[in-house]
Amino acid sequence: MSPRPWRVWVTVAVLVTVLGVYFVLLGERALVLLAAPQLVAKLLGAGLFVLPFIGAGLILAELRFGLAADRLATQLDDPEPDSVDGELPRRPSGRIDRTAAAAGYERRRAEVEKAPSDWRPWLRLGLAYDDAGDRRRARAAVRRAIELHRATGS
């Protein structure tokens, strides 16, 4: 798996900057509402004041996850391609055919069962789930790979 192209990093930087500006504006509006004499306005201001902190925490968690997953992907000394079985068939839209990808991740699941404490099969399983369009399981498998990598330090 190759490192992410520079366009991905630029896109992330732009999105985080835009969200940062949005959070500042939201915080400013919250302060205006907190200064208002009405109780309802103060309550809305307090709620708005908390939202940027929650959003910033979520963004930091996503960035940490993405960077850790990217580091693992670059460490994956794997001659196999990113997807389950090489170049998977694609639909006319360009997306990977989910049925073809779903058939392939069974092999990855078997690899995990053989070596459940190795992060590499977990990462490959996450990539296979992603190919199949199952984002929830993909993230869970990659998260498990990150945990195992941190625990073993390899």
Task: Quickly count the helices.
Answer: 5
Residue share in β-strands: under 5%
The structure class reads mainly alpha
How many domains, as an integer? 2
Distance between the termini: 17 Å
Q: What is the rounded Rg?
A: 21 Å
Order of helices and strands: HHHHH
Residue stretches low in confidence (pLDDT < 50, at least 5 long) are 81-85
Count of DSSP E strands? Answer: 0
> What share of the residues lie within helices?
over 70%
What's the story with the biggest beta sheet?
Answer: none
Envelope shape: elongated
- The overall pLDDT, averaged over residues, is 83
Offer a concise description of the structure:
The protein contains five helices and no strands. It is mostly helical. It has two domains: about 5-75; about 100-150, Alpha Horseshoe (Serine Threonine Protein Phosphatase 5, Tetratricopeptide repeat), CATH 1.25.40.
